[in-house]
Amino acid sequence: MKRGLTVFASGFLALVMVSACSSGDDKTMADKKMAMAGKQARAHIGHVMTGWKDTPGGKGLLIIAEGEAKIAQQHAEFAASKPGNIKWMKAHAAHVLHAVDPTAVANGPGMGYGVIKAAGGAAKHIQFAAKSPDASKNVKLHATHVATSANNTVARANRIASLAKTIAKEKSASAVTGYTKILLILAKQLQAGQDDNGDGKISWKKGEGGLAQAHQHMGFMMKGEKM
Predict the structure, then answer these.
(1) Which range among 7-21, 87-101, 184-198, 200-214 shows the weakest confidence by mean pLDDT?
(2) N or C: which end of the chain has fewer CB within 10 A?
(3) What is the domain range of residue 57?
């Protein structure tokens, strides 16, 4: 009788141990899955601010967009500095084009990535962050603000590219001078945005925000995530 009880107890203990191990394994797997999910939104935030695989120097997409925008504005200022000098204006308009879209001009002072690709990539990845299963309300809120400002920038950069191509074909120095003034206005808006509704401030909203507003709201987002 004692032997039977001993065998039963041993079998029961083994069953409990197996069950415990199985539960432990399930818990470990669940923890791993949660840990992996917890990294998804942050990974895309990192692509925007810290680094992306094909950017110059592996920098964040928004950082590259800001760098290219700075170059575009600098050369738009150069172009506008000598009104009437058609050769000078066309040369620097081409440099502006290279900074916003290097696929249109092979050589120039830009970083070789372009505002259009970088700002568009930033908008895309911050939306990936917002759609991640672990995205917080904070991430979802500011992702809309960042994406809107970044997409505003893409729209402005496309207008700049179109205008720069028009300048390249234009033969009238007076016409190029006029186009160059518009080019400079748009180039400044890449970073600063514009007060579209005339309320005295520039928000993140459609038609207003630029890269500065995108960066500002990335800061709000990352502070909320304690990054």
Answers:
(1) 7-21
(2) N
(3) 41-224
Note whether 142 and 135 are within 8 A (CB): no
C-alpha to C-alpha distance for 128 and 143, rounded to whole angstroms: 9
Tokens of 187: 């180039």
**Distance between CA atoms of 140 and 169, rounded to whole angstroms?**
44
Which one-letter amino acid corresponds to residue 87?
Answer: K
Measured CA to CA, the distance from residue 191 to residue 136 in angstroms comes to 28
57 and 33: one domain? Answer: no
| 30 plus 92 within the same structural domain | no
pTM: 0.83
Does one domain contain both 92 and 30?
no
Distance between CA atoms of 5 and 205, rounded to whole angstroms?
Answer: 75
Beta strands in 12-125 (DSSP E): none
What is the C-alpha end-to-end distance of the chain, expressed in Å? 65
Task: Give, as one character, the DSSP assignment of residue 57.
Answer: G
The CATH number for 69's domain is 1.20.1420
Sequence-distant (6+) residues with CB within 8 A of 216 are 204
pLDDT digit string, tens, across residues 103-145 = 999 899 999 999 999 999 999 999 999 999 999 999 999 999 9
pLDDT in tens, 161-209: 999 999 999 999 999 999 999 999 999 999 999 999 999 999 999 999 9
